[in-house]
Amino acid sequence: MNWKEFDINDLDLENMGSWPIQIKAIFAAILLAAVVYGGHYFFISDRLQSLEQAQAEEQTLRGDFQMKYRLAANLMLYREQLKELEARFAELLKMLPSENEMPGLIDDMSYVAADAGLAIGSLEWEQEIERDFYIEFPIRMSVTGNYHEYGEFVSGVARLPRIVSLHDFKVTKSDSGGVNVEVLAKTYRFKEGAQLPNNLPKNAGSKG
Question: Signal peptide span per the entry (predicted)?
């Protein structure tokens, strides 16, 4: 069969040897492309996807290893820091007033205010607030004086043996030329039987 005389309708699949060489080449190229595509689709693509997943997992594992290596390398340092934090926390808990010391705290606040030269307008407990492992005791107070006296009062509160924090300041000018200050003082008491945060000494909440 001559190439110029070729008609696609004359193709005989049972007698490919009689096909023109050009048709054989085209058919072989199509067949090869089909084999390559089929092999890639059915055999290689899944393995390439598995390879990509394995490479991504390898990067993740490398990152985890590097992080754990750094942690392991600094393990002793972390342990020392943890012990230091435990000791600090235990000391802070000892600074919380016990139940027997709560009534005297009002007297301490009154003494500090008077010693700073402030005139006390009001000083009273508000409703206690329960937290995770401690109880918050707010003290609403109003004092009158000048800025220097109020600064002395704040310093005196900071020097108290038990923890007292000051919040929600409201400052207004008084008729005498000084200032009226309303402030919410808060002290805290460890809640007996409460679950301490992890890794903290169980005796940290003992009354001091």
Answer: none
